[in-house]
C-alpha cells in the first residue's frame, strides 16, 4: 500500500518486515549517518539490478512497517517480485538484507578493538560455549581475536586443553591489582588449528580469580582495572572477548566497564552478549544483570550497549516451559535475540576431546549458528 506525500517526490510505503531486520536497519543507518528511507531506497535499487538469485529471508512473524520511497520505486519492486515468483514482503526483506550486507558495521578506530563481554551471573547457561564459539568464528573469518577466561573455574581454558595459570605466578588478577612481575603478553596461548592460523589467542584463567572482588576492593578506580591490565594487548588484536564469571561483583563491574562504548565508538560495536536458557530462572538473572548495567551507567557514566541475547541449549521437546520462555525472550525487542543454539551432542564431544568446536565439527548446526551470531554482533 502507498500514499502520496504532498509536495514531494516520495510516497509512503507500507509493507511488512521481520523485527530483527528492522532493528539491524535502524542501527546500521544510524551508525553510517544515513536516513532509513535512503538506505531502503538504495537497497531496493540494488535489488532490482541484482540478476543472481538471492537467499530467501525468513519473514515469519513479519510486522507492519512503513517508510518513504521515490514515487514508482515500490511499484517496480512489486513487478520484479512477480517476475521472480516472490511475495512482495520477501522482495522488501531481500532488498534490506542486501543493503545491510553491502554496508557492513563500521569498525572502531584503529588500535581500539571491539570488546564483547559475555556475561550472566547465572551459572550453567553456556557463557563459555558462546564465548569460545564466537571467538573461533571471528578468527576463522580472519579477525585477530583474544578471548579472556575471566572465570576462576577456568572452563574455557580447560576445554581447549590449555593448562590454567599457576597460583602464585603472574596472572590477569595480578596485572589488575598491580602486583605482576612480568608482561601480560607472555601469558597468552595460541589455539591450534588451521582454521585459526594463529589468529586466536587465549588469556588463561587462574584460581586466584576467586579472590578478585576482595583484591579489587582497595584498588583506586577498580572499575578500570581490567581495562588497564588489557591495554598492552589491544594494539595487536581486532576483537577482545571476555568469558565472564557467574557473579555480580566488582570483577563483573570491571568487565562491563571495559565493554562500555568508548569516545568516538559507534553504537553496537562493543558491549554485552547475554547467554540465557529457555526457563524461568534465566529471566530473574537477566533482570539483575540489567539493573547492574544501569547502575554502572549512573555511577560512572559508562554507556554499555546490548549486543543481544543468545538462547542456549534450546530443546523444544522440553515442552511448554521451553517454548513459552523462548517466545518471551523473542518478545523483548531490546535486547534482541541474536541466536538460538540447540542442545546437541557436538559441543559436549568437543569439550570431551578438548578441541575447539569449529575445528572438531565445523559443519554442525551449532557451529553454523555461532558463525551467524558472530556476524550479527560484528
From TrEMBL:
Residues 118-299 form the AAA domain. It holds the Pfam family AAA_31. It comes from the Bacteria. InterPro entries: AAA_dom, Arc_rbn_hlx_hlx, DNA_Partitioning_ATPase, P-loop_NTPase, Ribbon_hlx_hlx. PANTHER family: COBYRINIC ACID AC-DIAMIDE SYNTHASE (PTHR13696:SF99), P-LOOP CONTAINING NUCLEOSIDE TRIPHOSPHATE HYDROLASE (PTHR13696). This is ParA family protein.
